[in-house]
Amino acid sequence: MKLLIDADGCPVVDLTIKIGNMYKKEVIIFCDTAHVIERENIKTILVQKGMDAVDFVIANHVEKGDVVITQDYGLATMILAKKGLPINQNGLIYTEDNIDELLFRRHVAKTVRKSGNKTKGPRKRTSEDDEKFQKGLKYLIESHS
After folding, report:
1. For the chain, how big is the Rg over CA atoms in Å?
2. What is the C-alpha separation between 89 and 129, in angstroms, rounded?
3. Which percentage of the chain shows pLDDT scores above 90?
C-alpha cells in the first residue's frame, strides 16, 4: 500500500506524510509545474500543466489497495475502478455507493454556474476537518493493510 497525494491545492500534504511515516507507508506527491510541492525524503512526481494531466498520471500509478488523497470526483472514480482507496481532504472515503451521487451533484452545480447563477464556495478549513481526515486515513490504512 502506497499513499498517493493529488497535491495541487491539497491542504493535508504534511498530515498525510506524518501519518504515512507513522505507518511506514510510502508517500508520493503528484503535482503540476504550477504547484511544485517538495518535501524532504518524499518522492514528488512533477507533471506538465494540462487539463486533468495530474489525474491521469496518478491513475496510471495507482495499484490495488493504494490510498489516493484527492478532492476530484473524476479521479476518485478512476481510482475506484482500479480497486484503489480514494479519500478527500476532509476524510470522506469515496466508495461505489457514494460516487454516483457526488458526480451528479457536481454536474448539477456546473449546470447552475453555466446558466449564470452562483454556487457556494468551500467553507474555511477547520481543525475538525484535519481530525476527520486523520481518522479516515488511519481507518483505510488499518483496515486494508
Report:
1. 15
2. 8
3. 67
